[in-house]
Design a protein that fits this description.
heterodimer, A: mainly alpha, 9 helices, 75% helix, B: mainly alpha, transmembrane helix (chain B), electron transfer activity (chain B), iron (chain B)
Amino acid sequence: MAEEMGFLRRHFEDVKEHWKSNFAYLDYYKKTLGRREPLPKWTDADVEEFIASDPVYGPQLKALRESKKYGIAGALLGAAHLGGVSWKYSKSPHGVVLATGFGAICGGFFGLEVAEHVNQLYKFDKQAANLRFLYWWEDKTLGNKHLASGAQQN
Amino acid sequence: MAFESNPAPARGFLSGTSLDRLRGKNSVTGTLTSHSSGPLYGSRPIHGSSVLSESAKGISSNRPLSPNLILKKPQLSATYSISHRIFGAALCTAILVTPVLMKFSVVYDV
């Protein structure tokens, strides 16, 4: 069998599984964004209900939600800092706007890094915590309906 | 005018430069300035002889820039160069923004 395949094909067969595992993280976006019809809207009360009901993934989702404010605080701090420096020293108005936006992005990113350590987000799979809630919400709202057509929908 | 009390964006683009002096007015307030004793119109220079800023001494304000893209015929090599830079910048942006979006999306329910 191996002799029949050309060099390129044999190489492809060798590395196929490796690249499949490299891109496995895209599965999360297929399950969250790639739905054929979107899930019904949920509120904060629904998320609180899930957090109270699930002993494993509830605390993880709670930590994720608490780390939101670190990102927002970091974004405000970064925007104020970089925007303030450019406001004082720059001669171009559009440069001030761009610098403020860039400061917000960098500050938000850094704020989430702080939250990662404060709330110990590195200990668990953040995508899995989100997916557990989505599955719980899907079961709660749609019941068994999604199982009938779930084969195509995934 | 070594030090300005207002920050530059508050003063406005190119305000306080020779362009304002050419126009004979302040671009922020819009008021006419009476910096010259003679008549304002008819005596102002067409080609500015005053400097744009301290760092660009000797450059007059209304010279045509080179290359003048309005006058130049578009050529394949120039078009390739321009589009090459545009696509390069877009690719760079996409590569830089993707991990940022992935990090934010996990926390902010996106």
